[in-house]
Amino acid sequence: MKFIKTFILLILITVIALGAYAFSDYQKIMKEVAPIQTITFNELEINYKSASVQYFLLNGFYPIQREFQNLDNVNLITANILNTLSVLEMDEINITYPDQTIVTFVGTSQIILEENGTYLFNIKRVTPDSITYIFEFSVDVESMPTISISNKNPVQGELLIVEIDNIQKDSLIEIESHFRPSAIIQKDYTARFYLPMAYREAAKVYPLSLTINDQEYNYELDVKTYEFKEIRFTVSASVSSATVGNSDAVTQYRETIYPLYETFETEEYWEGNFIVPVVGARISSTFGEMRYVNNATTPSRHAGIDYAVTCGTDVLASNAGKVEYAGFLTMIGNTIVIDHGLGLKTFYEHMQDITIKQGDMVEKGQVIGHVGTTGYSTGCHLHFQGMVKNQSINPDFLFKIND
Ligand SMILES: [Zn+2]
User: Fold this and answer.
1) Dihedral, CA atoms, 249, 253, 256, 262, nearest 10 degrees?
2) Which residues, by Cβ under 5 Å, contact ligand 1, an ion?
């Protein structure tokens, strides 16, 4: 009997002790303050605003769930479709848009919220002692493309580069301009193209309109006058009649060169500034020059730069690209056309010989042939020309394209 009483007493003491232990632990939990932990979103620091916690009392007998102070959600507005979230590696992140989970991941840095709208973020953090904190906030995305034009006050013959950032993948881009743009290269969230200010066009204000997924962006290009030089010289009757005065030569030139105005490589091969394609030469004819040949009353225009130098001098590829044409044309002699990408091309004419072939990929500075005086030419020189479609651009802009 005494044994039983003692046993009951022991149980009673145990229950009271455990109860007291549970109660003190419970008190401890109730006093706990939600931890302030920070995450950063687009470099903006966000504190945990709400947290729920789950404890296991008495080795898992009594789970307790508790909500800490429930403050308002954080609402962020971002204009960037490439957003950066910094969290701890052990965090589990769920992004819901518009009402279904679109992304679930554990710890990362860059997230892409491509469509405009409201995204709900839910971040779950489980500590090593099984305490769970949950943080929620929403992000409104109101993304707009950013468009940069290399120069809105260019001169005749200048090449403009237009860059578009912060666009959705596979955006539909349309260009409306008096000038003919190159092909567009579109990669992930960016796009770019070249717009040549064809040198024969009058100096005045031209509109430029871009449509990106039905949204229109309008600009004005105030094209300024470039001071073109004048030159008078004579060409012998035999050279003229064999070339510019020879209808077969003209036809051959047109049939070979004109189709090249419409072709383009879809990759950009060029990098950095273009280089002058011959070393140690003297410029014998400048870009856009008005030429009065054999005392003509109306001038012809010179679409490139002539470099006078000894025949046999190396001709160098002005930048990396793909050889689109390499061959002899009665009109302009041994000729090479390189597409540097998107239809930005350089032409090399009147060469003595050609040391590469059509379809070759060439590096910047690679020897592609030698200076000569073939075709419509009065002495050893290289005619060098830059083009986008059928529009000539001033090579000087290619020489400082990345400056
Ligand atoms: Zn020339």
Assistant:
1) -160
2) 306, 383
